[in-house]
C-alpha cells in the first residue's frame, strides 16, 4: 500500500495505518534524533512524543505532501525544544545552587528583579497582538492549536506572530544577556 493511502486511512483513525507509518519511519527518525541529542533514551522519548503528536494531528496531515519531511521537521523542532528546556533548567538549577551555597543572594535577587523588569519592558514594546500571542505561548505554555482556538486566528498567523515577537524580544534583550533573562523567565514559570 502506498504512503498516500496510509495517510488517508490515518486521517480516519485507522490504527493499522498508523502502525505501518510508525514502522516505516521509526528507525530513521531515531537515528536522526540520536545524532542531534547524543542520547538514545531521550531520542526514544521524543520519538514517542512525536508519534503521539502525529496521532493527535492526523486530521491536519496533508497526504499530498512529503510525510517524511513533515516528521523530520517536527522531530527536529522537538529536539531543539527539549535541548532549550534542558538548558533553561540547568541555568535555573545552577542559580538555585548558588543561592543555597550562600552566594550573594541580595545582589542576585536585584539582578533578577532588573532582568524581569527588562523582560517586561521588552514585552511592552511589542504590538498588542504579538505580545498577546507571545505571552500565551512562551509564558502561559499554550500550544499553537490552543492559541489558534482561543484567538480565532490561523496556525500560520500564530506561527508568524510568535516568530516576529521572538525576534523583537531577542533584539531588545540582547544587550542585557538573553540567556540570563531566560533563567528569570524559567524561574517565574516554575513558581
UniProtKB/TrEMBL annotation:
TM segment ranges: none
Record's keyword terms, sorted: Sigma factor, Transcription, Transcription regulation
Family matches, as InterPro entries: RNA_pol_sigma-70-like, RNA_pol_sigma-70_dom, RNA_pol_sigma70_r2, RNA_pol_sigma70_r4_t2, RNA_pol_sigma_r2, RNA_pol_sigma_r3/r4-like, WH-like_DNA-bd_sf
All residue ranges annotated as the RNA polymerase sigma-70 region domain in the record: 21-86
MF term (GO), any: DNA binding
Superkingdom as given in the UniProt entry: Bacteria
Keyword Manganese in annotation: no
Keyword Transcription regulation: yes
Domain RNA polymerase sigma factor 70 region 4 type: start-end pairs: 117-169
GO annotation, biological process: DNA-templated transcription initiation
Family: Belongs to the sigma-70 factor family. ECF subfamily.
Protein name, as recorded: Uncharacterized protein
Organism: Sphingobacterium paucimobilis HER1398
Amino acid at each position: 500500500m502506498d504512503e498516500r493511502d496510509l495517510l488517508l486511512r490515518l486521517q480516519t483513525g485507522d490504527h493499522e495505518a498508523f502502525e505501518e507509518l510508525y514502522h516505516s519511519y521509526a528507525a530513521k527518525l531515531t537515528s536522526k534524533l540520536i545524532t542531534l541529542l547524543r542520547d538514545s533514551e531521550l531520542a526514544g522519548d521524543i520519538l514517542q512524543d512525536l508519534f503521539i503528536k502525529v496521532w493527535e494531528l492526523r486530521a491536519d496531515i496533508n497526504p499530498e505532501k512529503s510525510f517524511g519531511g513533515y516528521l523530520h521537521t517536527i522531530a527536529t523542532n522537538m529536539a531543539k525544544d527539549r535541548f532549550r528546556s534542558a538548558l533553561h533548567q540547568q541555568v535555573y538549577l545552577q542559580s538555585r545552587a548558588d543561592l543555597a551555597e550562600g552566594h550573594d543572594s541580595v545582589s542576585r535577587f536585584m539582578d533578577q528583579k532588573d532582568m524581569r523588569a527588562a523582560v517586561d519592558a521588552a514585552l511592552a514594546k511589542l504590538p498588542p497582538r504579538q505580545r498577546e500571542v507571545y505571552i500565551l505561548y512562551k509564558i502561559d505554555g499554550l500550544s499553537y492549536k490552543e492559541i489558534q482556538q482561543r484567538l480565532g486566528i490561523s496556525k500560520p498567523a500564530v506561527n508568524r506572530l510568535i516568530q516576529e515577537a521572538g525576534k523583537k524580544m531577542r533584539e531588545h534583550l540582547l544587550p542585557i544577556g538573553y540567556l540570563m533573562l531566560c533563567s528569570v523567565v524559567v524561574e517565574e514559570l516554575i513558581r
